[in-house]
């Protein structure tokens, strides 16, 4: 079950590192965006980023514990901070997938991080004490 805490203008969401956990965390995220009256385009980008990053953590990080996400609204932005205890992975350093020359050559999937990097106004990563911390800022306009 996901937990939500609202402290100091920030929303903290904790959910299990599973598909069901992502669904629970996503529901809490959407409720927060409703409360904050986030506009349509910003909301779309926040939900897209949340789904992509949370899915990657669950699928690839081998995290053992819960995933923690903090939402904040610095001026003009919506900031999502993801924390997990999975293997180290800096999404700023991953290669972009090759562009297919035709639809027949196109592969399904593998574009999530590229999309997140394109919509982000700021992306920070650090690993500390066995935990990944990814800060992703998106325009709130």
User: How far apart lie the N and C ends?
Assistant: 31 Å
CATH class: Alpha Beta
Describe the largest sheet.
6 strands, antiparallel
Structurally, how many domains make up the residues? 1
Number of strands: 6
Name the helix and strand elements from N-terminus to C-terminus, one letter apiece. EEHHEEHEE
Strand numbers in spatial order across the main sheet? 1-2-3-4-6-5
Q: What fraction of residues sit in β-strands?
A: 25-35%
Question: Helix share of residues?
Answer: 25-40%
Low-confidence stretches: none
Do you know the CATH topology?
Answer: Heat Shock Protein 90
* Helix count from the secondary structure assignment: 3
Structural class: alpha+beta
At CATH level 2, the architecture is: 2-Layer Sandwich
Shape verdict? globular
Mean pLDDT: 87
Rg, Cα atoms, Å? 15 Å
Explain the layout of strands and helices.
Elements: E1 3-7, E2 10-15, H1 19-35, H2 40-60, E3 67-72, E4 77-84, H3 112-119, E5 120-128, E6 131-139
Antiparallel strand pairs: 1-2, 2-3, 3-4, 4-6, 5-6
List keywords for this structure.
141 residues, six-stranded antiparallel beta sheet, alpha+beta, Heat Shock Protein 90, 6 strands
Describe the structure.
With 141 residues, the protein is an alpha+beta fold. It contains 3 helices and 6 strands, in the order ββααββαββ. The chain has a single domain, classed as Heat Shock Protein 90 (2-Layer Sandwich). 33% of the residues lie in helices and 30% in strands. Strands 1-2-3-4-6-5 form a 6-stranded antiparallel β-sheet. Helix 1 packs antiparallel against helix 2 and helix 2 (40-60) packs antiparallel against helix 3 (112-119). The protein is globular and about 40 Å long.
